[in-house]
Amino acid sequence: MFTPPIAISTLAIVLIVAFVVVDTALLLGFLGVRARNRSQRGSYAEHVAAADSALEQARASDRGWHREVMEQAARRALEESHPGWTYSQLHLVLVDDRPGVEEDRAHFVAMGDGGKEVRVILGRAGDHWGAESVE
């Protein structure tokens, strides 16, 4: 049985090789990014949370908000909605400073044992902070 030789142009060979090289580079890049994300998942989240918290604290301080008063209101709301639940950290994660004081909001996240997180949203009425919701 005779099989005729397959004729492939030089251009076709170059295009096939280029496609294989680019495809391999994309695949290796994807795998590398995935491995990096997996290895940095915990520390990356901690760094972002710390930066966000620091930024929001600075914004709150600059606007004349009293962090101690806000934390006390968040702690009271947590005690009322989750009596007996202990948490190790309370983070200010968002400051929503709108014109005037009646629409100002502050979001806190309480971090408890086993990774449980509870979000407390505070609203402002004059100088008084009160819980709008505890999620």
Topology of this structure?
Elements: H1 10-62, H2 67-81, E1 87-96, E2 105-112, E3 117-125, E4 128-134
Antiparallel strand pairs: 1-2, 2-3, 3-4
How many H/I helices? 2
Quickly count the domains. 1
Distance N terminus to C terminus? 77 Å
Mean pLDDT: 84
Main beta sheet: 4 strands, antiparallel
Share of residues in strands: 25-35%
Q: Kindly state the percentage of residues in helix.
A: 40-55%
Radius of gyration: 28 Å
Shape category: elongated
User: H/E element string?
Assistant: HHEEEE
Total strand count, please? 4
The low-confidence runs, each spanning 5 or more residues with pLDDT under 50, are: none
Q: Widest sheet: strand order?
A: 1-2-3-4
Structural class: alpha+beta
Structural description of this entry:
This protein is an alpha+beta fold and 135 residues long. It has one domain (7-135). The chain is built from 2 helices and 4 strands, in the order ααββββ. Strands 1-2-3-4 form a 4-stranded antiparallel beta sheet. A hairpin with a 4-residue loop joins strand 2 (105-112) and strand 3 (117-125). The protein starts with 9 loop residues before the first helix and ends with a strand.
